[in-house]
User: What shape does this take?
Amino acid sequence: MSDAARHAPGGTAGPYVLALDEGTTNAKAFAIAPDGAILSSGSAPVAVSYPRPGWVEQDADAVWAAQCAAIRECLAGVVGTPAGITISNQRESVVAWDGVTGRALAPMLGWQDSRTAEFCDWLRSPEREFAVASTTGLSLDPMFSAPKMRYLLDQVGSGPVRIGTVDAWLVSRLTDQSAYVIEAGNASRTLLLDLAALDWSPAMCELFGIDRAALPDVVASNADFGVTAGLDFLPDGVPIVGVLGDSHAALFGHGCRNTAEGKATYGTGSSVMIPSGTDRSVRTGVSTTLAWLTDAPMYGHEGNIVASGTAMDWTARLLGVKPGRELDELAATVPDSGGVSLVPAFTGLGAPWWDRQAVGIISGLTAGTSRGHVARAALEAVAHQIADVVDALDTSDLQVLHADGGATASRLLMQCQADLLGRDVVVAANAEVSALGAALMGFTRLGWELPAVAQQEGSRYRPAFEDGARAAARSQWRDALARSRAVPA
Assistant: This one.
């Protein structure tokens, strides 16, 4: 079916799931048929503000308005009411809102926000870091939600305050405040969830000064999230049937179910995740997380990179080209970076270093350095950071890395990634794998058979580097990292 037919007046008839995908910079909505086909879509941009160094904020009410706009555009292309609604959402970001009116009480603190770094340092001790990691699987870092929750609660004061991640916020708005729940995988990114008990940890709530009773209820990924109410674009009673954090949704959508296959999502930041089944062991430098919860938990090991798409966009602005294709074309004018390295530690470094004191640098400049070399270094920085996480994950079983996200359109970046990993990189045929993954989770609730659409390959990139070339490139990157972190190489 052509795009014109999908968006024709009157739209397409037939059963479908309305899959919402609320990301850092865009809110999207898709009508997805039982065979996995996208019948219609809508999108709206979401603004991000940086009021101070290290601060990253969004207007939560504007996020909701953008999501509503995307839904309206999507629904204009289909006929009938969706069988259910699913949500894929940016993780770790925190919203505080009025439990009666539903209005946001303060700016939403983005997952990249590092204003609580000093608070985390104040809490930090070997005993506490061990307790946090062994209970939650996470590092004591401002990227995660609990420090942001504490900060917002201090700002908004008392009253009918609700606080949660973006999935909890969207479900609350969709149900006219009747549902106050958080999906278990999203909850596992807060520093408050006990990975063994799959519920809020009293000890972690006490550590961060958050009343356990004030938090939303933790529910499974394909639970009963409530039904729509009070919306002008959907009738009351449409069930919300599946919710996943965007990285988890991508893992589910790619069909990764064992340690031989992992995925990397190339967005504003990047997430590398590998399923681990029942293994929730703690590994240095990376997180143990709950990928999803259905009849049984699926755990995963993950590394989160703070700046990947951000790094490429910043470099494009610096060089006076448009992000995406123009930056890619500029990088392709040279065979390599000419010894230039770019470390995009704009708000410090995430996995596997967790160094919020690291600073962004460009090193290796010479009189012969060109704009192409800097552009190439930006793409390589993304690939090196992914490789750092894969190394930290210690995945000797990993054979293929599935890739999704906007930057996968860069053939140069994907080849560079395969070269630095020494493993095949397979780009998803479906660019909207996170939305599709959440929809497939909803299918399990609705009793629909899971189609195999997500496993269709788009492009496969095989390593072309010899071992010596790979080792030299990685050594140059490690030298630059050491300068960024002001530590001996």
